[in-house]
Amino acid sequence: HPKKGDLIFYPNPPEDGEPEKIIKIVKEWRRSQGLPLFKDSE
């Protein structure tokens, strides 16, 4: 990475950093982009 740092995600609000919430956010974004979800997802 060109910056060699600051690659860690600091969610706001902190609850968005929970694993289940991260998966939910990723799924919502992938749906909005018309991309496939994970293999075991609906």
Describe the structure.
Belongs to the colicins ColE2/ColE8/ColE9 and pyocins S1/S2 family. It holds the Pfam family Colicin_Pyocin. GO terms for molecular function: toxic substance binding. The chain is mostly helical and 42 residues long. The protein has one domain (1-32). The protein has one helix at residues 19-32. The longest helix is centred in the middle third of the chain and has 14 residues, at 19-32. The chain is extended, with a radius of gyration of 13 Å. The model has no long low-confidence stretch (mean pLDDT 81).
First-to-last CA distance? 33 Å
Integer count of domains: 1
Percent of residues in beta strands: under 5%
Question: What structural class do the secondary elements suggest?
Answer: mainly alpha
Question: Count the strands?
Answer: 0
Q: Which shape, going by the Cα principal axes?
A: extended
- Number of contiguous helices: 1
pLDDT averaged over residues: 81
Computed over alpha carbons, the radius of gyration is 13 Å
Order of helices and strands: H
Reported for the largest beta sheet, the result is: none
Q: What is the helix fraction of residues, given as a range?
A: 25-40%
Low-confidence stretches: none
